Amino acid sequence: MRARLLNEILAAGEGSDPILEIDDIHLSFAGVVAIDGVSITVHNGELFAIIGPNGAGKTSIFNCISGLYQPDRGSISFEGRDLLGMKPNRIADLGVARTFQNIELFPQMTVLDNLMLGRHQHVRYGSVAAVLRVGRAAAEEARNREVVEGIIEFLDIQAHRKSYVAMLPYGIQKRIELGRALAMEPKLLLLDEPAAGMNLEETEDMARFITDIKRELGIGIVLVDHDMRMVMDVADTVLAIDFGRPIAVGTPAEIQRNDDVIRAYLGQEHAVAEPGGDE
Amino acid sequence: MTTTAPTPTITTVTPASKVRERARTTPEAVALRVKSEGIWREITWETYWDRIETFAHALIAHGAEVGDRVGIHSENRPEWVYTDIGSMAARAACMGLYPTNPTAEVEYLLKDSGCRILVVEDEEQADKVLAIPAADLPALEKIVYLEHRGVDTKDDPRLMSWDDFMATGHSHRAAFPDALERRMAEATPDDLAYLVYTSGTTGPPKGSMLTVRNLQYAGKVLAGSDGIVKPPPGPDDLLVSYLPLCHIYEKLFTVVFGTWVGSQTHFGESIDTLVPDMRDVNPTIVQGVPRIWERIHAAILVRLGSASRMKLLNAAVWLKAADRVGRTLARTGGRHTLLSRVLQGLGNMFLYRSLKDRVGLRRCRFGVSAAAPIAPEILRFFMGIGVPIHEAYGMTENTGVATRNLPGRIKLGTVGEAYEDSDIRLDPETGEILCRHDGVFIGYWNQPEATAATLDDEGYLHTGDVGEMVDGTHIRIVDRLKDIIITSGGKNVSPSEIENTLKTSPFIKEAIIVGDRRKFLSALIGIDFDVVSEWAQRKRIPHTTYRDLSEKPEVVALVRKAVDESNEKFARVEQIKKFTLLTKELDHEDGELTATQKVKRSVIEKRFSDEIESMYS
């Protein structure tokens, strides 16, 4: 029996219409400018990466999309719907899932429970039914468990199913965070430094997971990471920002040749290494 | 094949015919279970046979002829056995590749065997064969992949999904319903059943040709009441298939044993979930290699080390009792005395049951250790806690069948006695073990010289192992003929015995004894990272990598203690005077271990020659 592909487990994205449109957003904290006129469009099936030095405002953009921050001006729309002013949980309900730079899991719960929690938007039954485990509750729980088991297999974490998150190595916790975001069955996935602090092998695994998600689900993915090799390997489109200002947007190859990017990101004298050493 | 020929009534018995028979007599009984997405799913004998039949039809549909080679490159899973037994049904020969085989080895194996149809598990294995220029593999026509992820988008005309391949089998079956029956009816005992590549601690792998007759012999011997398992095995026995299926040992249990005995075979979730899978299944018969038994032993001891004081006290008392029981059983050959039975019963209540529960050995009535020598201390421990492990001996070239320890007749430190209908003897000059029976292979694929060097005119297989008789019945393996160390003092020393004693320490994972033509023996020792790391954490010794941990003076002292303890068991010339800790873990991909995790002595001695020389300067 072969393993199910993600589109056999979760709802897949369709076509390549724009799903997220950010238009000229600005954000400042007590006079410090965090985002200064960023505009991006992410399509279904597109992997959109945002790169920039530390403090360039990458995570701030994520926080604006997921509703944790409200930009001072500009607009953010998801599937044509205006997100500004919406509560984070409402935005999550619409189908925007994210992972965090610093892992935000429930460390005293098992991997399985953490992933099942990721399904909570898809729970449609009431507390009485839940307690009695009847009718829709039982059927939905079974369906949710099926989804979660598919994700466990996808991420190859069967050995950790019943382990407490706190006991697991960091690299595995990062995987579980990705799993929880997937369990939400998102239409748009925001990944905040999924490979941070990982060794080479773990980074390669993570890059493979992200590529598989894109290929099998065809949803929009926004990725922020420092690992240039990974970003350049997996991304379709890259936006480089510095001090909250966009410097350049284009394909990985274009971005690597862009002088402004090289200057901002690596300092004047460096060049960006070719990914994988091929070509 | 002509249509006018009468259908032969006598068919040659093969694992395929055995499955067909069970599908007819007990169609609803469970043959296999596989855990997928957290649930154990049952496969009945009827379904088992249906898949095998379809696969075999697909082979015929794709033009597979009698004797063609079909390869499979996958972890253990039901499709492995469908391929294995399905090939046999179509009278083709199956050859397995180790999942860890890197591209260069895959290329060698596919070229050498002339493999025509290859089943690959997933993208990782597909990439290996696709990295080889198609022109270099002229015989390879089809690459059938099991997992779609990342493979179904690749562009190679040879690629075909398992489902599509099986679909061609279905159509063929519908169009020619008796094609397979006819082919099976023509099977003979001389059919080539397997090419089993021995991993080879020296030189490139050689393909051992095993025939249907060899498997019939193994099936008869293993399933018999005087075979290996006592009381005799049956359909209620549960086994977990987890050792590599390309190796004769797991093939014997999953394929030959499973089909002859009708036991239930379980495929776990992944390579990392052996312990939880074992706990789920609680197998009644466990086939293991020393490394597995050593690891379970270490896991039990380490777990106890972090227990509370009360528990430690309890454990100390009952481990001592287990040692006593183990010694008694070692003396009696495995037969309980009244005292040992009572002691074990009590120990079971207070300690052993919970120990066994944790590793899924609670219902294990019969354990086997083979494929490499195991230290008697490990066997005694397991005997003591009520998991009788019986050391057996065999090799690819004799279908894994040579000697075994029978319950009640166990002699620790020996590999047991020869089976019925077999002729095992020692070469009067060299002490090499010679073996002659119907399980002895017919030679190495395309290697007449190597065959001639292994099989003599009288039909004896020269095993390359030096043995000695114990009490006129049992055989003790001294060492590989070529590994025997002769010190500069002229004394013959068997390195494996010393290495195995060292490895009984839970902290030591690898030990390689050096000393050929030298004044004294020394050792390269690799620590068990998990165990030593946990020990170091308890001692509050900060550490990072394997290398860092190996270089800690406390760790060196820890290993020294283990070496000293081991030395006490040996005569002066056999004692290790110096040792060096390896600063990297040995690995198959780096060429230091074979696919079956055996140390490649020559590679190690070359790679670590600086370390070795410094011990002698």
Average pLDDT number of chain A: 88
The topology string of helices and strands of chain A comes to EEEHEEHEHHHHEHEHEEHH
**The CATH superfamily title of the largest domain in chain A:** P-loop containing nucleotide triphosphate hydrolases
Name of the top-level CATH class of the largest domain in chain A: Alpha Beta
Number of strands of chain B: 26
Largest sheet of chain A: 6 strands, mixed
Q: On the 0-100 scale, what is the average pLDDT of chain B? A: 91
Strand arrangement in the largest pleated sheet of chain A: 6-7-8-3-9-10
Q: From the alpha-carbon coordinates, what is the Rg of chain A to the nearest angstrom?
A: 19 Å
What is the CATH third-level topology name of the largest domain in chain A?
Rossmann fold
Q: Distance N terminus to C terminus of chain A? A: 38 Å
Shape of chain A: globular
Residue ranges of chain B: pLDDT <50 for 5 or more in a row? 1-8
Largest interface chains and counts: A-B, 19 and 20 residues
* Relative strand content of chain A: 15-25%
Major sheet of chain B, described briefly? 8 strands, mixed
- Counted up, domains of chain B total 3
Count of domains of chain A? 2
How many strands appear in the DSSP assignment of chain A? 10
Key terms:
heterodimer; A: 279 residues; alpha/beta; Rossmann fold; 2 domains; six-stranded mixed beta sheet; four-stranded antiparallel beta sheet; 10 helices; globular; disordered C terminus; B: 617 residues; GMP Synthetase, Chain A, domain 3; 3 domains; eight-stranded mixed beta sheet; five-stranded mixed beta sheet
